[in-house]
Amino acid sequence: MPQPTGFAILVPNRKDMTLKKKSVTLAELKEFPGSWKIKGLDRIIEGTLRMISETEELRHFSTKVEYKQWIVIARSSMTMRGEFDIWQHRGGYALAVNCPSALVDAAASLLSLSIYGDLGGFNGKNLKKDDFIAIQKHAFSLGAVMAVLHLRNVKIGGIERSVYNTTGKNIGNEEELIRAAKKVKRIGFRFPRLGDSYFHFWVADWGGGTLYQPSQFLPHHAVTLVKFFEEALES
User: Fold this and answer.
1) Which CA distances in Å does 90 have to 12, 56, 227?
2) What are the residue ranges spanned by the domains of the chain?
3) 185-207: pLDDT as tens digits
4) Which residues contact 107 (CB under 8 A, 6 or more apart)?
5) Residue 31 neighbours by CB under 8 Å, 6+ apart
6) pTM higher than the cut 0.90
7) 94 φ, ψ to 5°?
């Protein structure tokens, strides 16, 4: 049975340009002044980002990392090895697929180093309340229905709830609920058709989420999803 696909949104801070380096390493990244500020970088032991392919619309990168992961039960850290892809819509957002959430900022920095030759070209996208409202409006305009809504500190019917987590079709007035909350943790949608496929995913306030459908994640699905977030958040 196919496993859900994790993703993280990476946003550009500069215009797209011709790739500076097709392959970059963790050692190169750590040589840059200020790299010590990159969240999660101290957890990575070794790492390499390499471009796999490039078209007029899309760049595909593969990233291999060896990093330290804290294991709660063992109360110690273990060395883990991982591999994940980054799909960059040329001139727009990028999607880090199955990247551990603790390594998103490091992944964005490796991508920046490859494309621009220095740091600061990309960063992870932390979502605020207005971002969630923009995503919700854009999703509904494309025929989606909300599948999950997780809020914190929201007043409903005169009763204040510290946690409000609901699923299903009859969630209520979604935008009103979001506006009434002090914090939005995550929202999820089902799209009868987004691009050429059925989509089902949720996205959280840290800028990442989980994709359940399509179950077989293909390059054009990456383009579809990354364009959805671009259109929702940049319009």
Assistant:
1) 10, 7, 11
2) 5-124, 129-205
3) 999 999 999 999 999 999 999 99
4) 8, 10, 49, 63, 84, 86, 96, 99
5) none
6) yes
7) -130, 160
